[in-house]
């Protein structure tokens, strides 16, 4: 986000990067009680208090779960929902439902060993040393509840959506 923000500004766009409770500058609020609904509320709060409308909302990885919930509850504020290598859930699905059984068990094992928190996945093997040094400062464990709570939608997502899959 720190690298993207100046590029977006140079192109005439405002780029918000809300932090989820327990992560980023809000990592001091980490708790094993944080769940998907907490993170949806975080982003909805930014939309409301910044009075953002006609926006492109992007979710990456787990952020697709959050973005889908936000798009469901703030349909009138979002003109496009972009999934960037993200989970794109349907009503009633949790992230744990969308991964292979071994990954699901890995999350549970990690949470059991880390007081309810799932450690971040390893970075891809082709990540440059410079990027590894930069990202390692920001990666934090998350509550298992974020991955096990099913997303409850109010209805079919009517916001236009696009999916970007990054390939090697």
Would you kindly provide a written description of the structure presented here, covering whatever features stand out?
The protein is α/β, with parallel strands linked by helices and 168 residues long. Helices cover 35% and strands 14% of the residues. The chain has six helices and five strands. It has helices at 4-10, 36-49, 63-73, 101-113, 129-136, 144-148, and strands spanning 55-61, 78-86, 117-118, 142-143, 161-164. The strands form two sheets. It has a three-stranded parallel β-sheet, with helices on one face. A two-stranded antiparallel ribbon has the order 3-4. The longest helix is centred in the first third of the chain and has 14 residues, at 36-49.
In summary, what is this structure?
By secondary structure, this protein is α/β, with parallel strands linked by helices. It contains 6 helices and 5 strands, in the order ααβαβαβαβαβ. The two termini are 21 Å apart.
Per the principal axes of the C-alpha atoms, what is the gross shape?
Answer: globular
Q: Identify the strand order in the major beta sheet.
A: 1-2-5
Radius of gyration: 16 Å
Helix content: 25-40%
- SSE succession: HHEHEHEHEHE
